[in-house]
Design brief:
There is one protein chain. Strands 4, 5, 6, 7, 8, 9, 10, 11, 12 and 13 form a 10-stranded mixed sheet that branches. This protein has a 3-stranded antiparallel sheet with strand order 1-2-3, sandwiched between helices. 38% of the residues lie in helices and 16% in strands. The chain has 13 helices and 15 strands. The mean pLDDT is 93. It has 2 domains: 99 residues, Enolase-like, N-terminal domain (Enolase-like, domain 1), CATH 3.30.390.10; 243 residues, Enolase-like C-terminal domain (TIM Barrel, Alpha-Beta Barrel). α9 links the parallel β8 and β9. It is α/β, with parallel strands linked by helices. α1 crosses α3 and α3 crosses α10. This is Galactonate dehydratase.
């Protein structure tokens, strides 16, 4: 069997889908994407496929991963690793379909029967967040995540700190104690503010605090962890086991949150989970993406023993189901019950793509970029 061709589809709201084709009629799908940089990643995928992968046996996944990563003088980073990630997902999808088995069987088999998921809660005012959180809990979620702050200055006023803590406290107190709440700092605060906020939030029994500082400041995590009783999580903006190596060595992190479409795909996500296990660290993969990325992440979640919870990526209980469902031929694979998704037991990634809809939506001009935030004095703030 060999790879004969491929198609790339940029589709709303901000996703890039890859279809890898073979001479035996088996096709695999992947989601290589950096949000807001779809065209850049698309170029990287095209270069990798045209210069190396087309014409080769898709079943030699590890060899191809090594060639794509080590075959270039410049390695790593969000663009190249996301390109490799989507290709890797598609290769696993092909291999699973070839052997008529879900990817998790090829990775070692089930370590669980279902996968706990959490959903993000939007809103700036406490009343809005509480209303949305209650809706999600009523629909079955037992874990939620909310943003801690908007843009902040390096050192904020007591009023801003009080407002931030009070907002989170109101949400925590409005929900039953059986509902877990994670809080995402999104790297928007300095190390000084991170120390203050983690201390002030310590009595709220949060599930985790995500990205208390930006990844480039991870050397401060041990100090923050030393004065925090809340588990610390990070890793959404780290892209390989080499990026995570110093993080584990520092000992300040309790959960890692790699994204299967950014951190080298299924192959690398398994290795990261194994590294984390060896350091007594859990994994809670992020997935603010589409259905292919979620399916790929769920395949890994089914296998690894140190999973805590999976970012759902999109809400299955919205009043109007989101675009993720438009791209699936069978949406029942993501049926949701009591805070859990079932394992995906069909061959490959366990989903079937509605190719007609994907092709149709790919004709739409997708222009999504994250906003640029500024502080009151006009200086740039972290989004």
């Amino acid at each position: 069997m060999e790879i004969t061709g491929y198609e790339l589809y940029e589709v709303p709201p901000r996703w890039l889908f890859l279809k890898l084709e073979t001479d035996e009629g088996i096709a695999g799908w992947g989601e290589p994407i950096v949000e807001g940089r779809a065209k850049t990643v698309r170029t990287a995928v095209t270069e990798m496929l045209d210069s190396y992968l087309v014409g080769r046996d898709p079943r030699r996944i590890e060899d191809h991963w090594q060639a794509l990563y080590r075959g270039g003088f410049y390695r790593g980073g969000p663009i190249l690793m996301s390109a490799i990630a989507g290709i890797d997902q598609a290769l696993w999808d092909i291999k699973g379909r070839y052997y008529d088995a879900p990817v998790y069987e090829l990775l070692g088999g089930k370590s669980r029967e279902r996968i706990r998921v959490y959903q993000w809660v939007g809103g700036d005012r406490p009343s809005d967040v509480i209303e949305e959180a209650e809706r999600l809990v009523d629909s079955g979620y037992t874990a939620l995540k909310m943003d801690a702050t908007n843009q902040t200055r390096h050192i904020e006023s007591p009023a801003v700190i009080d407002e931030t803590v009070d907002r989170i406290r109101q949400v925590r107190e409005a929900l039953d104690d059986t509902v877990d709440i994670g809080v995402d700092f999104r790297g928007r605060v300095s190390k000084s503010m991170a120390k203050t906020l983690t201390d002030r939030l310590a009595d709220l029994d949060l599930l985790f605090i995500e990205e208390p500082v930006l990844p480039e400041h991870s050397e401060h995590l041990p100090d923050i962890a030393a004065q925090s009783r809340t588990p610390l999580a990070t890793g959404e903006r780290l892209y390989s086991r080499w990026d995570f190596k110093e993080l584990f060595r520092g000992g300040g992190v309790d959960l890692i949150q790699p994204v299967v479409s950014h951190a080298g795909g299924i192959s690398e996500l398994v290795k990261l989970a194994n590294m984390a296990e060896a350091h007594n660290v859990a994994i809670a993969p992020n997935c603010p993406l589409g259905p292919i990325a979620l399916a790929a992440s769920l395949q890994v979640d089914t296998v690894v023993p140190n999973l805590v919870v999976q970012d759902h990526g999109f809400d299955v209980h919205s009043a109007e189901r989101g675009p993720a469902y438009d791209y699936l031929a069978d949406t029942s694979v993501f049926d949701f019950e009591e805070g859990y998704l079932d394992t995906l037991d069909e061959p490959g990634l366990g989903i079937r793509i509605d190719e007609e809809t994907v092709a149709e939506r790919s004709t739409v001009n997708v222009e999504w970029y994250n906003p640029t935030w500024r502080n009151e004095d006009g200086s740039i703030a972290d989004w």
